[in-house]
Amino acid sequence: MTLADGREVRVAPVGTLLKEHLEPWTFEHAAQVTGLHVEQIRLFAEGWAQAKRPMVLSSWGANRYMHSDLMNRTKLLCLALKGALGRKGAGYQSTGWVDLDGFSNAMRMEKSGLRGRLAVLFSSITPGELFNSVLDVVRKRKTELEATLEGETKYLNHKLCTTDVVEVNLKSPGYRAALEREQQGLSPRPLGAYYDEAHEKGWSPGLPRKGPPKVFFSGGANLLRRNNLPQYLKAYQLDEMELIVDVNPKFTFTGMHADYILPAAGWYEKPGIKYNVAHVPYLHYTDAAVPPLAESKDEYEIYWLLSREIERLAKERDLPVFDGCGRGPIDWKTLHQRYSNQGTLGQKDAEKLTEEILRSGATEGMTIQGLKQTGIARYTSTGTDVAATSLHNPDWKGEGVLTTLTRFTEHKEPWPTYSGRITTFIDHPWFVEFREQFATHKTSPKAGGDHPFQFVSCHARWSIHSTWRDTPMMLRLQRGEPQVWVNPGDAERIGLEDYAYAEIFNDYGSVRMRVKLSGLVRPGVAYYYHAWEPHQFPNHESYKWLIPGLVNPLHMAGDYGHIRHGMNRYQPGSAVQDTRIGIRPWTGQATGAKPVVQV
Amino acid sequence: MRYDIPKPLRQVSMVLDLNKCLGCQTCTIACKKLWNTDEGTDYSYWNSVETLPGRGFPAGVHDPATGGRTVEGGVRRGVVPNLDTAYGRAWTFNHEEARASAGAPDKIWIRPRETVKWGPNFDEDQGQGDYPKDNHYFYLPRLCNHCTHPACVDACPRAAIAKRREDGIVLVDQDRCHGYRFCVEACPYKKVYYDHVRQVSTKCIFCLPRIEEGVAPACARQCPGRLRFVGYRDDEQGPIWKLVEKWKVAIPLHPEYGLGPNVFYVPPMSPPKLDAEGRPTGEPRIPVSYLESLFGAAVHPALEALLAERARRRRGEASELMDLLIAYDWQQNFRLPPRQREVLG
Question: Residue A319 and residue A334: Cα distance in Å, rounded?
């Protein structure tokens, strides 16, 4: 057809293009790529075709490959072809169903009560913006959910002083150079080129801080254990800090490298609620069964005391108002006043804060006293929090099946794509550049060098996530030291004996782990169950020292329908599952990570 | 020694559905934290979870019986498992030294101080077979079977072990016990442990104080897989009677020992083996002959009943058995009316 400017273009419906795209993917071709038998694929396909309510539970673990997005897009395509998205008992379940709006309120409130809550609202949106937003909804230019989602995205991207691990890593020139070297040839242009373009065009918000940070303050985390290539994080970030503080119930590896550890009370030593991310529609309450050990304190109390001291010093030194992260001024001289809601929250008032959190859409009728009796309580809705409401299920009221994405099916709101419909086609310039307009297969890149084993991270066992990972009771239920799981046939071929030390190596050096034989493991793959502390390994270097953590540049793309940055929704991650390693018997040879490459 | 073991008025019992066990060891820790943190019982696990096929815990427990009863009904003397090679010593660790070496050139890492030879979960997930053709394993959680004809009772020259009249729970009188360990030898399930500090034998008490309050044992209550059912064997409304007597899908471990265990297992079904080309065959991965070596011939009708009811449910028809095993309503897993608490003197 002819365009307005006279150009002649060929037009084809996306459905035709998709059919063409899928044409080569016969069962036989898929069998060749996957190593599965045609019959297994046919069985699965027939089961899928016959399934009345097919559902894919695609959780965090499904996002740990460089090409996880392609895998997930393929699952979505299969679901869409079945008309299963947004249908009861079917569809796509990802992370997060229920969210507590009271939590973000409580964290941001600087005054108690209604005045505090209103102030939170107006701190993220000006009265003018609020008026326009209301007008948009009334005039039906936007749905109510679209308007609120927009407001929240704005708050997360431009107000909240937050960032992600990839942003932190890539901001450091040394770390960035290491990753660019690793990812050479994986994309049409170098990784840094995409990072720069995404920031120039405002697709990724970045963190516009004015200068390099001087204090690393760690709470509820263990970055030196968890970050990929911690040797680079240490060389390019932590070693430059003037002060490192760790607030933690555990004596972690990060804590071992801190100047100060502020011991936090453990579970059952402080009251608190645990709210889950998915699948279990209950709020959990834990009571303080015993007082905190020695000098340890509830984190709420630690920050209460700390903010009081910082405020005192700020006043004493008459500190000016700073804009540390580039997203607005922070006045240290009123820090404690704001933390304590102008003095209404005392040193031991963690429960008052919990009460504020319980003022959530999802927790109607719940009280601390009630939770103390029952331990758990069923949510009454997915919550009025924007993510939960707009992305998942606005009409679930605590009863029956929770179905995701009904906002777009039963409630007939447009999908946030360019077409307003479910689409399998993305013609964002970067997606075109990567030839990923449609979901396709791409081979897992060999991160860490061309070595024979794929090094796969499994979720921790013998611990609750990363907690109690090094307690004797849990260690006795395994073998006392970190283990690499290998197929018995592979082990025999290499000459590895069960329980012997093995040297795990790749381009970043080597570490030592105990060999564990298991018929569960596919030949050519080695498993590790994550969350071991580095000081459980010789040289205090864990497998993380060998894992570069690939970054997919497409996850920094934006300004295209549903392809736009959102914290915990669309942002680059650090993919670990593509890592390659070699394994050989350890016979006393020296092992260790190679020195950090200087830029 | 032959004691006249009175038939209890009622028998409390547990059924474990092996198709749902994920080997998380929450039961092991729930039990251990509640009952077994003393120094003398540090190596022992009243509740343990084994990977089978495997060596079990203690190692060798599924080998031809070491203990149990003779054909005539007397006690057969077995062995006391070795602390290092069968139970596995409770290793101690060097956390302090490891932390202190953080800034030193020679780093000390956290590891057992003792030589590691075996442990309660040492061959976890090892299993048998070749990937992807027929590799297989399953988990077997084990506790004391509170047998109808317990060998441990007869083995004790001190008459320190008794089966309670009220509920059939087998208990070791900690005051009468002199620590001879004949019971440890005699129990072919190896679920009596020797407390080497207090020098007495100890074993699973089926969380007796909880049972008296009408609360299921900690291992059952805390099971995330909801695979444990607890109740009385004669309660026709309860899950035990339905699974053991009515549907006959819950069967005892090693019935050939002749002790009449009161803990029952729903045997594991398994996905098909693949042929040389990778095509699924009709044969289950876990050889039925292997299951028969654990559960006896009753495993055949049990598996047949399970497969038939599963097929029925898949066709959309009703199945009381499948609904019970799925445990839609977890509270229904337990039927334990609270009783008058026994006042111990």
Answer: 11
Measured distance CA(A543)–CA(A579) in Å, rounded:
10
Which pLDDT belongs to residue A389?
56
- Helix spans in A95-200 (H): 101-108, 113-124, 127-138, 144-158, 165-171, 173-182, 191-200
Q: What is the CATH number of the domain that holds A121?
A: 3.40.50
CATH of the domain at A529: 2.40.40.20
Question: Residue A420 sits in a domain of what CATH number?
Answer: 3.40.228.10
DSSP B94-127: -HHHHHHTTTSSS-----BSSPP---TTTTTTT-
pLDDT in tens, A438-493: 999 999 999 999 999 999 999 888 888 888 899 999 999 999 999 999 999 999 99
Written as one letter, the residue type at A347 is: Q
Please write the tens of the pLDDT for every residue from B17-57: 999 999 999 999 999 999 999 999 999 999 999 999 999 99
Range of the domain at B253: 12-87+120-333
ipTM: 0.93
Tell me, what's the pLDDT at B57? 97
B 165-194 residues with CB < 8 A to A: none
* DSSP per residue, A337-361: HHHTTTTTS-TT-HHHHHHHHT-SG
- Same domain assignment for residues A251 and A373: yes
Q: Looking at the domain assignment, is residue B21 inside a domain?
A: yes
- C-beta separation of B120 from B84 below 8 A: no
pLDDT > 80? residue B317: yes
Higher pLDDT, B5 or A546: A546
Q: Are A121 and A81 in the same domain?
A: no
**Does B83 contact chain A (CB < 8 Å)?**
no
Q: Which two tokens stand for residue A583?
A: 């394994």
pLDDT digits (tens, 9 = 90+) for A105-155: 888 889 888 888 888 877 777 778 888 888 888 888 887 777 777 777 788
Output phi, psi for A474, to 5 deg: -75, -35
Asked whether residue A60 carries a pLDDT value surpassing 60, the answer given is yes
- Token pair, residue A592, equals 């260790």
Burial (0-12, 13-18, 19+ Cβ within 10 Å), A331: middle
How many structural domains compose chain B?
A: 1
User: From A500, which residue of chain B is nearest by alpha-carbon distance?
Assistant: B116
pLDDT confidence tier of residue A280, bands split at 50, 70 and 90: confident
Is B115 a member of any domain? no
> Which tokens sit at A36?
């599965």
Q: Which 89-148 residues of chain B touch chain A by CB within 8 A?
A: 90-93, 95, 98-99, 101-102, 107, 109-112, 116, 119-122, 124-132, 135-137
Band the pLDDT of B345: cuts 50, 70, 90. very low
Per CB-CB distance under 8 Å, the chain B contacts of A257 are 102
Nearest to A62 by CA among A98, A96, A94, A30: A94
Give the one of A37, A473, A517 whose C-beta lies nearest to B279's C-beta.
Answer: A37
Identify any residues that bridge with A506 across adjacent strands, giving them in sequence order: A509
Number of compact structural domains in chain A: 3
* Residue range(s) defining the domain that contains residue A70: 14-95+414-433
CATH number (domain holding residue B47): 3.30.70.20
Residue of A nearest to B91 (CA): A476
**Whether the Cβ atoms of residue A297 and residue A264 lie closer than 8 Å to each other:** yes
User: Which residues from chain B sit within 8 angstroms of residue A251, using beta carbons?
Assistant: 95, 99
Dist. CA B51–CA B55, nearest whole Å: 8
State how far the Cα of A324 lies from the Cα of A134, in Å rounded to an integer: 33
Asked if B292 has any chain A CB less than 8 Å from its own CB, the reply is: no
Same domain, A331 and A286: yes
Give the nearest partner residue to A479 out of B98, B116, B128, using CB atoms: B116
Contact B2, B153 (CB under 8 A): no
